[in-house]
């Protein structure tokens, strides 16, 4: 079984791929990684294995690899371009499509959100609008893990809070080693909101009231 690769996105957040299982990453002291070192990390720790999976006979494996490759930072594009002329036509076509679609709205899926891991959350009488802002920061860093100041095309996705005419809400809950998807579900439950995913948005809305 191949080794899982990992990408640091925040001091307490990581995306895991390779084996398809979320893992926690303990940050180490030191300067932020440069584009060059970041590209080396993703290339040496699994990008080739993921590209090979684009031609796997199992459709689910192919789709999982495609999702993981789309989460790679833009600095990995040089490594991806090496596969533009892959002998397997499907691999070559998929890799070209992944690189060419940079900057377009990301189509969010539950599986994608489940692979964004938050080692610890603790909300105490936190305003729901602030909680959503926190989750948006996590999502943005997960989708765009380039160093600050890097000239890249941002992947666009967001978590939207639609309170309509509801009063502002505060929530309290805590957890460790939880995925962003599970955190959103818990937040919706404790705040009495509904959760749905539409395209590049996760939307929290009030429950439907029956007449």
Largest sheet: 4 strands, antiparallel
* Residue runs with pLDDT of under 50 for 5 or more positions: 1-42
- Strand order within the widest sheet? 1-2-3-5
Q: Evaluate the radius of gyration.
A: 18 Å
Return the string of H and E elements. EEHHHHHEHEEHEE
* Cα-to-Cα separation, first versus last residue: 55 Å
Domain unit count: 2
Arithmetic mean of pLDDT:
75
Strand content: 15-25%
General form: elongated
The helix count comes to: 7
The assigned structural class equals alpha+beta
Count all strands and give the number. Answer: 7
What is the helical fraction, as a range of percent? Answer: 25-40%
Features:
single chain; about 210 residues; alpha+beta; Phage tail protein beta-alpha-beta fold; 4-stranded antiparallel beta sheet; 3-stranded mixed beta sheet; 7 helices; 7 strands; elongated
Notes on the protein architecture:
There is one protein chain. With 211 residues, the protein is of the alpha+beta class. It has 2 domains: 95 residues, no CATH class; 86 residues, Phage tail protein beta-alpha-beta fold (3-Layer(bab) Sandwich), CATH 3.55.50. Helices cover 38% and strands 21% of the residues. The strands form 2 sheets. A 4-stranded antiparallel beta sheet has the order 1-2-3-5. Helix 1 packs antiparallel against helix 2. The longest helix is centred in the first third of the chain and has 19 residues. It is elongated and about 60 Å long. The protein starts with 5 loop residues before the first strand and ends in a 6-residue tail after the last strand. The N terminus is likely disordered.
């Amino acid at each position: 079984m191949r080794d899982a690769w990992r990408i640091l996105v925040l001091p307490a957040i990581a995306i895991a791929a390779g084996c398809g299982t979320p893992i926690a990453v303990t940050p180490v002291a030191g300067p932020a990684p440069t584009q060059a070192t970041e590209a080396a990390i993703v290339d040496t720790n699994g990008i080739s294995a993921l590209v090979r999976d684009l031609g796997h006979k199992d459709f689910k494996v192919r789709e999982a690899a495609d999702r993981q490759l789309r989460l790679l930072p833009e600095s990995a594009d040089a490594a991806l371009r090496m596969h533009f002329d892959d002998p397997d036509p499907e691999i070559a076509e998929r890799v070209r499509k992944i690189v060419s679609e940079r900057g377009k709205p990301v189509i969010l899926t539950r599986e994608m959100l489940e692979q964004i891991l938050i080692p610890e959350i603790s909300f105490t009488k936190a305003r729901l609008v602030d909680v959503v802002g926190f989750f948006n920061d996590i999502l943005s860093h997960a989708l765009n893990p380039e160093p600050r100041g890097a000239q890249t095309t941002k992947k666009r996705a967001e978590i939207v809070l639609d309170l309509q005419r509801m009063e502002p809400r505060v929530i309290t809950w805590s957890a460790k080693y939880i995925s962003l998807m599970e955190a959103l579900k818990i937040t919706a439950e404790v705040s009495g909101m509904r959760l749905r995913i539409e395209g590049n948005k996760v939307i929290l809305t009030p429950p439907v009231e029956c007449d």
